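ERR on first pass: missing label on line 2. Operator R.T. fixed the label and resubmitted. Corrected input:
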Amino acid sequence: MGKRAKSLFSVDIIIPGMAGRPAHARISERVRAAIASGALPARSRLPSSRTLAHDLAVSRNTVDEALSELVAEGLVVRRRGAGSFVSDRPARPSRVVPASREVTNCDAPAPRVSRRAKALQAYPGHHSPMQAIPFTPSLPPSELFPVKIWNRLLCREAARSGTAYWEYGASNGLPELRHAIAAQAAAMRGTRASADQVIVTTSTQQAVELAAKVLADPGDCCWVESPGYQPVQHVLRAAGLEVVQVPIDRQGLRVEVARSLQCHARLAYVTPSHQYPMGYEMSLARRSELLTWAANEGAHVVEDDYDGDYRYEGRPITSLQDMDSNHVVYVASFNKILFPGLRIAYAIVPRGLVESFVDAKHVADGHTALLSQGVLASFIAEGHLAQHLRTTRTIYNERRLAFLEESRILEALLEFGPATAGMHITGVFRDPSIDDRAVAAECIRRGVAVDPLSKYGAVDCGGLVFGFVGASRDRTRDRVQIVLRSITEVTSRSRAQRHVSN
Amino acid sequence: MGKRAKSLFSVDIIIPGMAGRPAHARISERVRAAIASGALPARSRLPSSRTLAHDLAVSRNTVDEALSELVAEGLVVRRRGAGSFVSDRPARPSRVVPASREVTNCDAPAPRVSRRAKALQAYPGHHSPMQAIPFTPSLPPSELFPVKIWNRLLCREAARSGTAYWEYGASNGLPELRHAIAAQAAAMRGTRASADQVIVTTSTQQAVELAAKVLADPGDCCWVESPGYQPVQHVLRAAGLEVVQVPIDRQGLRVEVARSLQCHARLAYVTPSHQYPMGYEMSLARRSELLTWAANEGAHVVEDDYDGDYRYEGRPITSLQDMDSNHVVYVASFNKILFPGLRIAYAIVPRGLVESFVDAKHVADGHTALLSQGVLASFIAEGHLAQHLRTTRTIYNERRLAFLEESRILEALLEFGPATAGMHITGVFRDPSIDDRAVAAECIRRGVAVDPLSKYGAVDCGGLVFGFVGASRDRTRDRVQIVLRSITEVTSRSRAQRHVSN
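pass 2 clean. output:
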């Protein structure tokens, strides 16, 4: 437990959190977030203040100040001679969990939910679906989807199937669809796998959860990218895994840092072809290093190729699955390239793991709904997917170029990352004191959805994640203006506040 | 650990396993099964042979004989002065895992899968879907489903939806469907819940997995019925829970036995209206006892009402959800009453847990596919579900009566349980020495699918589970004859073997 808590803080040193705030506040905030996320479970022991002071390169007084704050809040207890521990049942730390969470429970005492469910409470549960306002990242514009073709196939498949789509289906998926997927992924991403190695799932989340269950037991570690894709981290936690944040740089996940944490991870989750959210490609050296680690440790890498079909400049990198099909679980989704309501994604798994994945999928939900699988198989086989990808690639590229041009007015404030692929682009604030969540909130108030970069984990500076595929040039121009005004509003507001407090 | 292992054996005493086999073989077989299922994890300590001998009321020699067998197989190690332990990585026990499991891994060393995935290997993963041969239990006959009506609604909904079904949906489900479900369940089963408390899932399995994640952490205990529905037990294990088998009697789960195990369960999974597979109704006294336990412990009960829509005689019992909506998660599925390929089920959850369930569903797979939800909502709203239930109730009842009549020729061999509700009936062999798995295998060889009762957990006597809704009277007559011949064949074969070995 001591080791686990320590590694958590080590990560913190590498990517210091809230720049500009006093050291003790940064430390206590970090511990609060770790407790809220479940990374520091109830009753776990914190490192000694001597160790913390040494690791964080601060004085013991600073550490003691942070701990006293946490003790006062009831989050941490000190036991004479034994050290400091996370409380038995820590009160929900109010600064971390959004206050907007409604209390729906009016006629009964609050039921006791599990620690992992508490950890999920920090994550916005979606009663209401995501709305397609620009620049919502990862949302394909539904008006581009060939609904008529899809509906024609749907009615045709439903009519001609007899009762084939009404019975129980194979847990790994409809054979026609698995064949189509194997061929498509091989052609686009160079994967080396037969249709037998394809497992049809409802979503990327489900594919990752199956990998977590098949390859790791509760308490086992999984490396994830920081900053990185949060929903998957929640999937891993819900499956009982310990999520270990590993910093990235422009080459991708820093494998040597991950190894130095000595947490004996069974899994690593990465987005090598287009890091989410930073947009970097994982370098060949780093990919080899990661695969060597996996081969040596008998561990596995989950490669999420969430937008591998969209590339506008240069050649795509070789997929990890192509480099080592024995240690890679490749996952991708049709929900982002066709439409989110579809709920079909897939995993391509190592040959020796096929049976275990089929068992896990069977136990999880039997199989994915059959009719949609049949319609998708026809959609691919009859060339409509290829056509849709050609169309959207052209339009997304136009929108990308429009965004790059229109967003120049933001360049004094934001340093943009690469935009050679995918459906989003990330800009990092040049001024580390800008609060990206306040900017995102101000944007929403003005009708524009952007994601604050800090939502994706600890970062040196805040930033904004823009989905560029949903807006035409004219709308892009207007919306960029709104973002600019929002940033100006937030910075002048915080300058005024600083003035008052001085 | 010692306590856990001990409770496992205590259950074993209450429902002794393989009757007619020598005591040491029964003990070693039980341990093998417990290791294979994950109930006894690697490195866990077995009770001392003195304790085992006392608890099982056998001599220490008998226990030592069983342990020696397990040590010889590499499943158990003995450490001087410390006791007996499950091996670090027990070899796959060949007698428990079906030998038919194919080795698909030909070009790489076997990858290391998790303990929970190993536990699932004892469960038949379904590459190939279930086949609709009589008397397969739990399989609705697809020819009775009004495919034309469904397809008409499907094409209409797809055409009129605009793009509403293509975007992201709410994680708890389509509002129209949640309203329809709340009304339907209230009318049929007296549930007390608003549409807000309904969470649409893909399957009963997923609904139970959400409950497991929201209400329990890895390592927490869940009571299940023994004999009981195996797929759900695997769901619970995959979610990291410890599954505690609790014996049932004609009144349902023996709550006082469960309490005496002192495993501080967070959850209990039961099938009160029609126990699976025995067909009993849970008595009012037992239901009250279970709910009192839940209220006192702050625990929750998962009520699986898997065939609550089919009742042929008498009145349905009051649902647990109606008795205490604060401590019950009610789950039911459309996959069994409409068609399995649909993949829509639901949970009705306590008001105070709604947010946590929505979060968990959002993390698990975003939401259930939208178009099918819309079609189902219309199917219910326009009265087609009610009509389908009326039609199938009449036909299933005719088939039930035919089965009861035709199966009289089996009554000398089998004692049948109640058949006043549901889609299956269970018979227990009057002769405890009959091997039900051998009979089921012989039936399959002759083209009839029946489930061996022992598949559902430890039982005094073997038995057969018949699904009666899939066969007309003529087919029922033929098939019952085949079952009779299969039993005769197996018993005369085993008599011949005994003769040879004497």
